[in-house]
Write a structure and sequence with these properties.
Layout lengths: L1 E2 L2 H8 L8 E9 L5 H9 L10 E4 L9 E4 L5 H4 E5 L6 H12 L10 E10 L2 E9 L5 H11 L22 H27 L3 H17 L16 E9 H11 L3 H19 L9 E8 L13 E8 L6 H16 L3 H11 L5 H14 L6 E6 L7 E2 L2 E9 L8 E8 L2 E9 L6 H19 L1
Parallel strand pairs: 5-6, 9-11, 11-14
Antiparallel strand pairs: 1-4, 2-7, 2-13, 3-4, 6-7, 8-15, 9-10, 12-13, 14-15
Length: 455
């Protein structure tokens, strides 16, 4: 048995009827779609490299300790692999609608928490594959590395044969309780380790962490409400955009900024356009975006868990000039990196070992029920492979991420780089974000504006 970390467990605790906590990736592939048997054999041959995909979550009775991963004795690949087709005439709009419906559905907690959907009928001699994984299993970085296992690096990669697999005996409640009591006995040792780590931190580092905490408290002050935050329903909208990575790099080089600065500026333009379209004054809005930061070391890239912290950026939607907007983003992101916010967030994760699981669960659910959290949106930018990938010999030509919403956010943005392109995936609440396309088009038009102004 492998116990979930406090952060991993939190993604289970916060999940509710209207807040499914899974992430996903939508890959558009060229050529004729593979048969069900062909893709099933390809995935079956690779399951040995990702044991977590044949494990399920077991909760400890009475919530005495965090849940554990155990082998699923009834694992059946046919349950997790889904085959569907878009209704005629097929196309990108139909793909958007399908992803929105699929992502509104919860994963079954009695089974391994993932699904793969093969989607035919996309048109233009293309098809799509949708991979859906619960956030308690992976973060964005681990998810991108997982692609290297599920997908191939060459179109003619040798086809491995599925190996034999025998699941470990599933523990009963008595064993789960016994293991929980044992792990509770080790908690003081873990807590002492955390305290020793804190005591050995240089004064400068502790000062940076303190500054980061103060920055968090400052940005979560009450601000004028907008239509971008509030309760969300159970249904989802999803949209996507495709931008050339070399274009973004050229803009970044000309302006002396990072690629992420350009990405954040484009997202800012999208939210500004959306506010204007809704007759809301962007100069009166304070749009706070949670920006995840990976804490994963190079030697941890093969671990399927969550190793992230984050910082809160205030998107300058009040700035009309595209270059001025980019300058504001650059200044703020540079200041945030020096503010200690990522270290502060990582420290909070470490201190979670002091909180009983039941208290963590109550706190996460209470925060979700408030429907008005400290953030307006989430903007996550994950670097992906810059070389072509293949599925059953078919090349992946476009790749788009999906990130969930909840806790008061109604529109979140994920960005994934792949093979010379940036794929933007925008998730919205069905009821409150029927105009999600305005945000999407604002992102792509921002790149056009910056290119015209700087190149």
């Amino acid at each position: 048995m492998d116990r979930l970390s406090p952060l991993d467990a939190s993604f289970l605790f916060v999940e509710g009827a209207g807040t499914p906590m899974h992430i996903a990736c939508v890959a558009v592939c060229a050529g004729p779609p593979p048969s069900y048997d062909e893709i099933s054999a390809s995935i079956a041959a690779k399951l040995a490299f990702i044991p977590r995909y044949r494990q399920k979550v077991r909760f400890v009775p009475f919530g005495l300790m965090r849940p554990v991963w155990v082998d699923d004795p009834h694992f059946n690949l046919d349950y997790h692999l889904r085959h569907t087709a878009l209704p005629p005439p097929g196309g990108r709009d139909e793909l958007r609608a399908l992803v929105g419906r699929v992502m509104a559905q919860h994963l079954d907690r009695h089974k391994p928490l993932w699904e793969v959907w093969v989607v035919e009928g996309l048109g233009d001699d293309t098809w799509a594959i949708l991979t859906k994984v619960h956030h308690c299993m992976v973060d964005g970085i681990a998810g991108s590395d997982l692609m290297a296992v599920l997908f191939d690096l060459t179109p003619d990669a040798p086809r491995a044969e599925p190996g034999s697999w025998e699941p470990d005996t599933e523990p009963d409640d008595a064993r789960l309780l016994l293991e929980a009591v044992r792990d509770i006995g080790f908690l003081p040792r873990e807590q002492i380790r955390v305290l020793r780590t804190l005591s050995r931190m240089p004064a400068k580092t502790l000062a940076e962490v303190g500054k980061g905490v103060r920055n968090w408290l400052r940005v979560v002050e009450r601000t004028p409400p907008t239509s971008l935050t509030g309760p969300s329903g159970p249904h989802r909208r999803w949209d996507f955009a495709h931008v050339s990575l070399p274009r973004v790099k050229d803009i970044a080089h000309a302006a002396g900024v990072t690629v992420n600065d350009v990405v954040m500026t484009a997202v800012t333009k999208g939210f500004r356009d959306l506010l204007l379209a809704r007759d809301e004054d962007p100069t009166e809005a304070r749009i706070r975006s949670f920006v995840p930061v990976s804490l994963r070391r190079p030697d941890e890239r093969n671990r399927l868990d969550n190793r992230v912290a984050g910082m809160i950026a205030v998107l300058p939607v009040d700035v009309d000039d595209p270059v001025g907007r980019l300058d504001r983003v650059r200044e703020q992101m540079g200041a945030l990196k020096q503010s200690g916010e990522p270290r502060a967030a990582a420290l909070v994760e470490e201190l979670a070992v002091f909180a009983p699981p039941a208290i963590l669960a109550w706190g996460e659910r209470a925060a979700a029920r408030l429907g008005q959290g400290p953030m307006t949106t989430v903007t996550t930018n994950v670097p992906g492979p810059q070389l072509p990938l293949y599925v059953c010999g078919r090349r992946l030509v476009e790749l788009y991420p999906y990130v969930g919403i909840g806790g008061g956010t109604r529109l979140n943005v994920a960005v994934f780089s792949y093979d010379g392109h940036l794929g933007f995936g925008i998730t919205g609440d069905w009821e409150s974000a029927p105009d999600i396309g305005i945000l999407t088009r604002g992102i792509t038009s921002a790149v056009d504006e910056l290119e015209s102004a700087l190149l």
